[in-house]
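#structure-requests
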Amino acid sequence: MASNVNPTVRRRRLGQELRRLRELKGMTAEEVAERLLVSQSKISRLENGRRSISQRDVRDLCNVYEVEDQRIVESLMQMAKDSRQQGWWHAFGDIPYSVYIGLETDAESLRVYEPQIITGLLQTRAYAEAIIQGGSPEASEQENDKRVEVRLRRQSRITAEKDPLRLWVVLDEAALHRVVGSRQVMREQLEHVLEMSRLPHITVQVLPFEVGAHAGINGQYSILEFADAADSSVVYIEGVTSDLYLEKPHDVQKYTVMYEHLRAQSLNVEASRRLVERIAKEYAR
């Protein structure tokens, strides 16, 4: 599903370059905002890639930073133009986590810790329908159907024949026992997890109840990594009304160390498969 021009990633790269130019100029975001008569939050959102950026914005910022090389200005303006194109997910309308989808679409690898449910990239349709309906009881049927289709469309990243997303998932044992939809839905879901876990680029480990307190006790998170060295890793934490993206090296490193502890505390791959298989058989009774 990855395309040559991913608008989310383009915005992110452009924002990083604009931040670099500002820092080279020795200016604060507040000083730039004052010069352009805009809010400081706008400058911050442009630099972190969370806001769409126009070619006019780029031109104005380059003027403030006194960028004399016209080739650099033109390159940045082309990036701004590319960043305003639409990814495949825009066809589904307003998606709350569209920024994340853009990052996931371009990521090389993804590490996920899920304490409550089976992670979205490994969900069956029936399980996804039950999860989305249960989590959004006030949403319309049409809205929930759209979210299901987006979730299933995202899964093409792990089923692609060429350069599939490398996925490592740590599932809390609670996710295996929580009956979502029905016992039949759960049996089919766990059988699907087993099948997917046998693919060479997908690893699934289970964090057993017996571990007790552990490094992921504060909740779900994901770590996205990219092939291009210019794209720093991102920690994604999903929220109810807003999501959190952490990109500072110190933050990413802290969550990476936490994930290594989770992997060490989890059952190994074969033991994890045996546990998933055993619980799947229990649902068949």
